[in-house]
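Hello forum,

I keep getting stuck at the same step: I have a sequence, I want structure tokens, and every attempt I make locally crashes halfway through. Rather than fight my setup again tonight, could one of you with a working pipeline run this one for me? It's a single chain of 261 residues.
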Amino acid sequence: MRILLTNDDGINARGLHSLITELNTIAEIYVVAPRTEQSGTGHSITVFDPIKAIEANIPGIKKGWLVGGTPVDCVKLATKRLVPESIDLVVSGINHGSNLGTDVLYSGTVSAAAEGVIMGYPSIAVSLDSFDPAADFTFAAGFTGRLVREILKEGLPKTTLFNINIPFRPAEEVKGIRLTKLGTRNYDNLFDERRDPRGNIYYWLGGGVLNEEQDPDSDVYAVEHGYVSITPIHLDLTHYGLVKKFSRLSEQYLNYLLRGE
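Reply #2:
Ran it on my machine without issues. Output:
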């Protein structure tokens, strides 16, 4: 078995290396990760600049590279050029901080897993609900290892990724696992206006998460209440209800919309 391991926190991130320690007992590990932190890059790719990949000497893996690009670049490059063997699973994480609700649209961690799905590989994204610099990833890595064993045995639909968020609390205080849907996640979006040494204005984005009432079936609610959240996500964003609604419109009305006749 072979696992491609990546992230958006960068190749030196503790979450990544905790997974290496856990997963190298399960399968051969290839690591292809960004050279620097790429949090918030979403599904961006590098198209106007060259992408540099340098071999990295990382204990416990078969081979590794640090990449001067985004998490999605890493998955594309790994599966098409760098990794010489077939991959059984793409694992992205463990992210230092949760990726809940609409975070998945901004997250480089989730986007790397989504790219794995696009490239035809079963994929998971894993995040720990803490930004504490001293956060302990032991429980999160152990849980991920147990889940990966089951995935490698039972399989995953290739059109779906698992987005996993783990509460930051002692193992004995984790209440269980919930299969969830995406919740609501909004931010203050505060832009701090500053000036550089030449007097030019620039802005620094900040602001915390807004407190909002959450659906008890959502990932946000589950993690806030001490549960590991597993959200199956597929990449088909089609609103089938509207497709069905508009398909019932008459041919005459559709022609009016098209030509004004």
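The longest helix spans residues 138-154. If your local run keeps crashing, start a new thread with the error log.
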